[in-house]
Design brief:
With 318 residues, the protein is of the alpha/beta class. It has 13 helices and nine strands.
């Protein structure tokens, strides 16, 4: 039986790849998509999401618009990473439908509670929608199999030296989700930065006359610009799509169950602190410990296998 999944997205480049994979893989039943501001404005995220699902032939998947900014701080522009349109200039035809009329939080509540099987909620964005859902409607936790989130790091950050973008964008929301009691799986930068498609394959896809392979190739070939606007080198990351791939091939990842917390102040704001110590330290000895969530944390990945799964699913034979 296919896994019922909902994706919570801020559709930029790699969210688009994740949506294409989720819509295509037979072991996943994409029952809905909720949108939040992050990589782009909420309006742009919704439009991008509808266009990507149309490209995937998944026009029956409902889409709902959610939070337009973090819980506390203003929204931040990530155009230097994903381009002004959020899709790195890849032009997709307009969708011939609109988002659901209800707010994403209500859509998530209704969809999760109505489903006959526990739902896997995959967060590929700042977790504002999820925090609002779990605080306003805690009853949904009973029908969540788990929350898989692309976010955080057990090592270095990218938004700052310590913090990964999705958690850094709304750390209070991430902290709420960590404290929710729902089973959690963290697909962070430790694995995100390793799953890539070779440049030659991406360029071959981009040269295709077929809309889907061409779009995938151009998305993979997007170069992340430096803060001064200088185009970066080819990376070929499938990014957020790797978190969705992990649902299908969980044995392709090395996972440890570890204590995790989110820092909410100072330069470390937005950092996911992952406690990998084998024994208690001085903090425990002196009564300085606080409550931590216990999370399944991905620390290693068979990158070639996951990238191959992505390509075989989204552009088979291309």
């Amino acid at each position: 039986m296919a896994i019922p999944v909902i994706l919570d997205v801020d559709t930029g480049v790699d969210d688009a790849l994740a949506l294409l994979f989720a819509a295509a893989h037979p072991e996943l039943d994409l029952i809905g998509v909720s949108c939040v501001a992050g990589n782009a404005s909420l309006e742009r995220v919704v439009d991008n999401t509808l266009r990507v699902l149309a490209l995937a032939g998944a026009t029956d998947v409902p889409v709902a618009a959610g939070a337009s900014r973090p819980l506390i701080e203003p929204a931040r522009d990530a155009g230097h990473v994903h381009g002004a349109d959020g899709l790195a200039g890849v032009v997709l035809p307009p969708a011939d439908r609109r988002a659901e009329p209800e707010h994403a939080v209500e859509f998530l509540r209704r969809t999760i509670l109505a489903h006959p099987e526990p739902v896997t909620l995959v967060a590929l964005a700042p977790q504002t929608n999820l925090a609002l859902l779990l605080r306003l409607h805690p009853e949904v936790a009973a029908n969540l199999a788990r929350i898989v989130f692309m976010g955080g790091s057990a090592g270095v950050g990218n938004a700052t030296a310590l913090a990964e973008f999705n958690v850094w964008h709304d750390p209070e929301a991430a902290s709420v989700v960590l404290g929710s009691g729902v089973p959690l799986f963290m697909y962070g930068l430790d694995v995100f930065n390793h799953v890539a498609v070779p440049r030659e394959r991406a360029q071959a896809l981009a040269a295709s006359v077929e809309p889907l392979p061409s779009a995938v190739g151009w998305l993979l070939d997007h170069r992340i610009a430096a803060p001064d606007g200088t185009p970066g080198d080819y990376l070929g990351w499938i990014g957020d799509a790797g978190a969705v791939c992990s649902l299908v091939v969980p044995d392709a990842l090395r996972v440890e169950r570890l204590p995790v917390r989110v820092e909410l102040a100072g330069y470390g704001r937005g950092q996911t602190v992952v406690d990998r110590r084998e024994h208690p330290g001085e903090d425990a000895a002196h009564g300085l410990t606080t409550e931590w969530a216990t999370v399944d944390v991905a620390l290693g990945v068979d990158a070639e296998r996951v990238a191959g799964l992505f390509l075989d699913t989204v552009v088979p034979g291309a």
